[in-house]
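Notes from hallway chat w/ T.B., transcribed later so I don't forget. T.B. wanted the structure written out for a chain they're using in a teaching module, and asked if we could keep both sequence and structure tokens in one place. Agreed to drop them here.
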Amino acid sequence: MTAHHAIEIALTRPATDDELCRARRVVALASDTNRTRLLALQRARTPERALRTLRHRLDVMLPIDVLTTHYPDRQGRVLLNVALSPATRTTVRHAAAARGQRPRDFLSEIITDAIARHGEQRARHLTSRLEELLTDHTPEELLRCAANALHRRSRGKCASTSS
């Protein structure tokens, strides 16, 4: 069965009017206000095929950095399509061979590990910040501020409140 896949396109720079016009003749695109991120629907049997097809169709028209599936698959993964330089491709191939892996699996593993490390570092940083705040404020004050911030955010307001 052929399905439509939502593909997010990250550009290396904002697309010009001419670039977007040419690309929109090939595929329907939605863009953000600064024209560095686009969204497209690509018909294909698999998400991998959708990424490859869209890259092939748009690579010469737009300054594409990364293509990603917009929605996670059943395992919760978002697929990436990155065009590597020949030198980088060779480096990845050698590093993967040294580990007895396919380049695709090697990249998947190191990217997943880097994301996990980033999450751990962020959690440590946030914990440290919270501990700093707790030295100057009571847990009740922090909880009240957090509740106010969440309430403002849920209502779409950014104005600060005074206590």
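Follow-up for T.B.: Residues 103-136 form the longest helix (34 residues). Might be a good example for the class.
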